[in-house]
Amino acid sequence: MSSTIKISPSILSANFGKLGEEIISLDKAGADYIHVDVMDGHFVPNITIGPEVVKKLRPCTKKIFDVHLMISPVDQYIKSFSEAGADIITFHPEATPNIEKTISLIKKQGKKVGISLKPKSSVDLLTNHLEKIDLILIMSVEPGFGGQKFMPEVLPKLKKLKKIISEKKLKIDLEIDGGINFENCKTVKEAGANILVSGSTIFKENSGNLKKNIDLLRSG
Ligand code: DX5
Ligand code: ZN
Which fold has domain 6-219? Predict the structure, then answer.
C-alpha cells in the first residue's frame, strides 16, 4: 500500500449535464482518481450511468477511473466497463454468487480489482480473497446517494483491515467512501485509509473550489 494519500472525487455530486467539463476541471484541480459511481436501481435504490457514458468521458482525462459498481448481478457488465476505460473495478461481494469468478473476470481484462464493504458487511466476506485484490473500499454510508452523514461505526473495520494488510505485508489500498469531510478526513487516514472518496465536500464546500477542497482533504 502506498503511504501517500490519494483523493478520488466522486462525480455523483457533479453536474450530470456537463460531466465531461466537470472531469476536466477535477483533473486540473489535482484529483488523483476519478470515482465513478455506477448504480442500477436494484442493488441500490438509485440509478446513475452505464458503460457508454464512461466511454464518452474517458478522453476527458488520463487520470485513473476508479469505477465503483453498485449493480447486481455484476459479472455480465465487467467486460463493457473495462472496454469503456475503467482502471479499477470495485464490486460488492453480495452482487455475485462467486467472488473468485468475479475477481478473475476483472483480472482477465487487465484491470485492478476492488471489493467494497457496505457499513454492515463483515470483513469475513473478503478475508479469503486478500491475496488476489488490489483495493478494499469501505463504505461509510449506505450506498446509493451522495451527501449522507459519515458513519463512525465503520472505523473499527478500517483499523482491522489495516492491521491484517500490514501483518500479511499485502499491497492493498484502503479506500473510504461516504460522508468524508474536512472534520473526519484526518481520523480516516489515521485509521488506515490511503484513498479518500468525496463527492459533496469537493463539489459544494468553499463555493465549489475544487482545488482548495481536494488540497484540504489531502493535507487535513
Ligand atoms: C455512495 C457513493 C459515494 C458517494 C460519496 O453510494 O458510493 O461515492 O457519491 O458522496 P459523498 O462524499 O457526498 O458522501
Ligand atoms: Zn462510491
Answer: TIM Barrel (3.20.20)
